[in-house]
Amino acid sequence: MRKQVFLAMLLLIALVLSACAQATPTQAPPAGEATQPPAAGEATQPPAAGEKVTLIIESWRNDDLPIWQDVIIPAFEAKHPDIHVVFSPTAPAEYNGVLNSKLEAGTAGDLITCRPFDASLKLYEKGYLAPLNDLPGMENFTDFAKTAWSTDDLSVTFCVPMASVIHGFFYNKEAFDKLGLQEPTTWDEFYQVLDKIKADGTYIPLVMGTADMWEAATMGFQNIGPNYWKGEEGRLALIRGEAKFTDEPYIKTWQQLARWRDYLPPGFESVKYPDAQALFTLGKGAIYPTGSWEIALFEKQASFPLGIFKPPVEKAGDQCYISDHVDIALGMNAATKHPEAARTFLSWVASAEFAELYGNELPGFFPLHSTPVELKDPLAQEFVSWRNECKSTIRNSYHILSRGEPNLENELWRVSAAVINGTLTPEQAAQEIQAGLDKWYKPKQ
Amino acid sequence: MSTKPGSRAFPIHIVVFLAPAVIVYTLFMIYPLIDSLRLSFFAIGSDNREYFVGLRNYVLLFTDSNYAPRFWGALKNNIVFFLVHMLVQNPIGLLLAALLASGGWGRKFYRTVLFMPTVLSFVIIGFIWNLILSPLWGVAESILKAVGLGSLFRPWLGLESTALVTISLISVWQFVGIPMVLFYAALIGIPEELLEAARVDGATGWQVFWRIKFPLILPTVGIVGILTFVGNFNAFDLIYTIKGALAGPNFSTDIMGTLFYRTFFGQQLQLGNPTMGATVAAMMFIIILSGVLIYMFLWQRRIQAVEM
User: Fold this and answer.
1) ipTM (interface pTM)
2) A273-292 residue pLDDT tens
3) Has the keyword Transmembrane been applied to this entry (chain B) (predicted)?
4) Where in chain B are the domains?
5) Does the beta carbon of B50 lie under 8 angstroms from any beta carbon of chain A?
6) DSSP per position, A327-368
């Protein structure tokens, strides 16, 4: 009996130890090594002539996989038969976590799709992204485009800017025609339209879920907010410390989101992003708050004509602001085994040819190239035309304000979803966000 | 036994046989564990180097206005998660095992079917239940409507008040096979003559179960309890697949595993913090270790006294 008990004890200790060990990062090398970028050239092995080099692209754009595979990569490979490129995306919400651990473990791909501002800057500072100042083609981008992927003093740029995205609302034209509705421009009109759709009952007025949380922040808060905080003016005031999230513009934004609750699909609290996309493209919804990045997918899947309208303003004739967010760029893993091939690819990404291809194959991603690209997609053209009427800004949580903990972006996801769910009031949300920011952010005087 | 003591050669074969397991285990289990504990006493400075900070990470975790609410919240949620398993999964497992052990038609079939979810991947389980409970395309609502209870349907996975219990019950559904099999094995191991003697003495089925069978499987009850405890405080996958690393809504499904993941690996614009992550991992280790020690020194000893 004693023996059995002893064995049982051993077994348990083993179980506990193994269980705990699983929770610790067995694959990560000691941090000292991981944070040191390998010396240039150390891991470099120039391929023998004729040997094919394979480059792997890390990305969060899993919706774009077919276009990269069938159009963009073949166009590059036709010119560079010695380089083979593989597009290997991760789900958007998991991308950064997965990428960080891959970089730390040294298993990340050769080319890294860069989030704008602080997230990529941190990767560069840790030595995971290679500087690209001298990359041929970099001169094709304005300083504005490069700011999102440069050090604060603009001395080093570490990703090749690819595209920006514009926020707005999609709507089902068939539904609008059937119910005799017009595109709303003010908040009053917006809710009148929603009320009419709701009264009719055929369509779900506003298609969005809060289960994944980021929609509430990105497609809700950052979409409609710039009209309240006056775009760049408000964003920079936050950074300078002259404005707070507890100010009226931010409270009003959350108050609008809270009003959306009555028009969302049944059980929206557990509706996920793909559910909402499917619901809208199946023709069951009328209005879908989102951004230009949905154009390609929606045009492919929806069997009804699509329309778009800008985020509503308070009074007709008010200056409008749009979130025209520099969103996506491509950088090079500092530890890549094929820096030459990777730079060749990046140079091509910096070319006008790529901008043309990307802007038209992925309508809704607007190239940041200094040569204007002629967009063929009518919806993409309409999105871009808003730049003439409205002032552009970027999401306020991406630049500088995401450098500390608690992370502003994550917190915006959480509270914006909670405001729509009705578990936080707009005022509570504002206080929690401002308290989190105050905890670490000291504006420069 | 004929060889004289002292003249026996060093039992080198024992070392040889133990070596592979000891080496692999030390290298991949014990070393990372110790290194992770070590890491929890360090912080990474702005120059990317590690600095020894003593217990500061732990103080932050328990008191900082950013970490403390998350840590205590995750601990509380984890305890709820564990209690649901103890109160629902294990009694149901015992009931099913008792039914299976009593014999009868279809026993093997049900034993296999009930165990099946346990071997499925978390991703599949998460996906299936997301679909079943979906307010848009789920069958849960139609089933409730069919029996006239449609008004009871809620988007359980999305509400702060119900999300954690719902996920716990999904996990119960997945893992009920494990206590069932363990209890079943213990129950069929009970000598038939004991049960016969009881019946001859006129005991009812109820009395036989509670007076004879249950006391005899008490050691298994302990094992099941501690396995549940260890499994639940290490849980992560199911919540991650259903709710993501932010464990929404409003952190209502955040448990130790998701807190660890978020802290260590980061999330969206938040970069990972390996040293704080190691601190969370160390707390998980301490919680699990204390649970196991309580089990070994209180439960096991008493059981031993009963058995002897």
Assistant:
1) 0.86
2) 999 999 999 999 999 999 99
3) yes
4) 14-54, 67-124+152-307
5) yes
6) EEEEEEBTT-S-HHHHHHHHHHHTSHHHHHHHHHHSTT-EE-
Residues from chain B that touch A413, judged by Cβ atoms under 8 A, are: 246, 248, 268
Is residue A99 pLDDT above 50, yes or no? yes
CA distance B297 to B291: 10
**In this complex, do B155 and A267 lie within 8 Å of one another by their Cβ atoms?**
yes
Structure tokens at B23: 């080496």
Six-digit token string for A181: 């509705």
Residues with Cβ < 8 Å from A106, sequence gap 6 or more? Answer: A29, A34, A335
Q: What topology is assigned to A166-324+393-440 in CATH?
A: D-Maltodextrin-Binding Protein; domain 2 (3.40.190)
Q: DSSP label at A313?
A: B
Q: What's A415-439 look like in SS3?
A: HHHHHHHCCCCHHHHHHHHHHHHHH
Residues of chain A with CATH 3.40.190.10: 41-165+325-386, 166-324+393-440
* pLDDT given for residue B105 in this prediction: 81
Q: Which of B271, B280, B284 to mutate to test the interface with A (most CBs of A within 10 A)?
A: B271
Q: What is the spatial distance between Cα A185 and Cα A173, in angstroms, rounded to a whole number?
A: 16
Does the structural domain B67-124+152-307 have CATH classification 3.30.43.10? Answer: no
A96–B269 CB contact, under 8 Å: yes
pLDDT digit string, tens, across residues A351-380? 989 999 998 988 889 988 888 888 899 999
What is residue A205's predicted lDDT score, i.e. its pLDDT? 96
Q: Point out the least confidently predicted range of A135-144, A224-233, A274-283.
A: A135-144
Q: What is the pLDDT of residues B204-258, one digit of tens each?
A: 888 999 999 999 999 899 999 999 999 999 999 999 999 988 998 999 999 999 9
Class of domain A41-165+325-386: alpha beta
Q: Say how many residues make up chain A.
A: 445
Summarize pLDDT for B118-165 with one digit per residue, the tens.
Answer: 999 999 999 999 999 999 988 999 999 999 988 889 999 999 999 999
Q: Is the pLDDT of residue A35 over 50?
A: no
Residue numbers of B between 282 and 301 with CB closer than 8 Å to A: 284-285, 288-289, 292, 295-296, 300
Nearest in space to A335 (alpha carbons), one of A103, A45, A97: A103
Kindly list the distances between the CA atom of residue B189 and the CA atoms of B104, B183, B217, in Å, as whole numbers in the listed order: 17, 10, 9
Cβ atoms of B232 and B239 within 8 Å: the answer is: no
Distance CA A299, CA A293 (A): 11
Tell me which chain B residues have a C-beta less than 8 angstroms from the C-beta of A126.
48
Distance (Å) of CA B78 to CA A233, A393, B163 = 44, 41, 13
Predicted pLDDT at A256? 96
